[in-house]
Amino acid sequence: MRHNKTGRRLGRNSSHRAAMMRNMVTSLIEHEKITTTDARAKELRKVAEKMITLGKRGDMHSRRQALQVIRDRKVVGKLFEMVAPRYKDRPGGYTRIIKLGARAGDNAALSLIELVEEEFTAKPSKKAAAPKAAAKAAAVEAPAVEAPAEAAEPAEEAKE
Length: 160
Known about the structure:
Blueprint: H1 14-31, E1 33-37, H2 38-57, H3 60-69, H4 73-86, E2 95-102, E3 109-115, H5 126-159
Antiparallel strand pairs: 1-3, 2-3
């Protein structure tokens, strides 16, 4: 039984799996999107998000920690100077996985994993949204009350 054992084994021993994840996260940061199987993409997402979080911290210790995983100095430089500043206001969710269908040779499920590009906008809290909703409701009701009153005035003039 494998109770409380997280992560997929991907049919490899631990050293091979770690080396594969290093290579894949290096390629993902270098090219900003890669195509791989669904299971690998889901495992890669964990490693890539940790690397981007290190890049957001930006200090020398986090750069050295990133170099333990990403062994290419140019890619780590790109991570810290170009990729991480893009996500300075985003609290997570730096990658997107898009299902592509089945691979022709072995029918394996393929996915595209990429770094998200669009700007992050924080959702308004429920407390902040409630006064706006009340103000909108009041604004909608006010013209509705005035419109019948204006319609009543011409009718009174017609009677006179």
